[in-house]
Amino acid sequence: MYADITQSTPLTVHAPTGFGAVWRRLLTLTVLLTPLAALVLILCGVVAYAFSWPNMVLAAVLYVVFAHGVTVGFHRLFTHHSFEAKRPLKIALAVLGSMTLEGSLISWVADHRRHHRFVETDEDPHSPARPEGQRFGKLRGLYHAHMGWFFVQSPSPREKFAPDLLADRDLVIVDRLFVPLSILTFVGPFGIGYAVTGRFSGGLAAFLWAGLIRVGFFHHITWCTNSLCHVFGKRPFRTTDQSTNFAPLAALSMGESWHNAHHAFPYLARHGVDRGQLDTSAMIIRFFERLGWATQVRWPEPARLAVRRAEG
């Protein structure tokens, strides 16, 4: 279990400055803008095979596979220890999650644990909360929680928030391989597209759809959990923050948008804890459990859910 960082422990993390800050912001802008540029190229008909079904199917398949690397691996396994995984599964989930370009494994976990510890305060890296009475406060908070925080926040201290991962040699190796894995997530689709069509343009179209656009789309779905799921939706459970369940995002987020339930019970392997709530990440964890690859899975218990139910 990760270290208990209490609210009474001050967090001395400052906004980045100097050349490093400029480089970080330029890199962030590149990550934000290149998927949009790819979409413009496709819509303008610049690239051949742009609207072929194989490219769209490839993009959808890779989206689902790599997204679950984040939701099942980075989030439920490595951040919250919702279950224990056999070593091959642990490594596979770490690699797949790293190929979404959401940051290296240990940094991602440190940021998310910091979010839970200091949720909706100044020390929360992507809090949507703004000072009372601030002009356009809700809109500015949504922007900050969605992607504005990338331009002003420094990385969360890994030694403070993820000492357990730093002690795991397998995970440290995967964390160090973030750059080559990020390259592979784009090279792979290009290679598949080229192999299928036998043309450079076919590889380029697959690169745009299953590489850039797929990565960019998942980024925004993830960021919507940070923004929309703290402002819009329902709050069936009592929490100290304003987290919500936002059903429209459930399918695309692999069950992550049942965010109020997650904040009420962050350790659970299932976020969609109520009947009819789609949570493909939990379904996959159940499948791994039946295969014996996942153990000590922390499933919802009706009695514990009832204690935190909001009245009415």
3D structure, described in words:
With 312 residues, the protein is mostly helical. The protein has one domain (18-307). The chain is 56% helix and 1% strand. It has 13 helices and 2 strands, in the order H-H-E-H-H-H-H-H-H-H-H-H-H-E-H. It has helices spanning 18-43, 53-79, 87-98, 105-117, 137-146, 158-161, 163-166, 169-176, 178-197, 200-227, 259-264, 280-291, 302-307; strands at residues 84-85, 294-295. Strands 1-2 form a two-stranded antiparallel ribbon. Helix 5 (137-146) crosses helix 10 (200-227). The longest helix is centred in the C-terminal third of the chain and has 28 residues, at 200-227. The protein starts with 17 loop residues before the first helix and ends in a 5-residue tail after the last helix.
